[in-house]
Amino acid sequence: MFKAMTKKAKFILMLAFLASLSLQSSFAQDAEAVTDEELTQYATVMNKIDSMKEDLQVRYNEVIKTNELMDEGRRFLELKNAWGNDAKLAEISATDEEKAAYQSILDQYDAMVAEFKEVYPNLIKDDLGAALYNKVRNAMKSDAELKTKYDELLASMQSTDEGDSETDDGGSN
């Protein structure tokens, strides 16, 4: 059949085939387009996760600052810089009690991180579902406009959260 076709006919057939692929691709992209509602859902969950990360950092810093041996965090930094190097630990005169306190803080932090790592995938699964999470995340990788829209939405949510927490703090005094 192809032998009997002219070059022009083959060319037209090839163009028609490419056009159909292009249309199929366009339809597939439209079907995968992220709606404003989906983006808002995604941003809401990511905002919760970011808030959880910030809370984890605050709790970690509080554990460090409230430990009497860590001198409001100054000694913690010295130990952190020397940790794993016995010569440096000796150089800063780290006591066994300080080393035990430092290790305890690390253990508490590891427990906090483990708790976070257990909670956040469930939050994604329960509030978004894996399909929606992957759809939005992947779409943002290839769509700069969508990523910008997401960043603006997330920033708006975070500024609202900050305003709410300032109001909450102000009311407790």
Automatic annotation (TrEMBL):
<keyword id="KW-0732">Signal</keyword>
<feature type="signal peptide">
    <location>
        <begin position="1"/>
        <end position="28"/>
    </location>
</feature>
<protein>
    <recommendedName>
        <fullName>DUF4168 domain-containing protein</fullName>
    </recommendedName>
</protein>
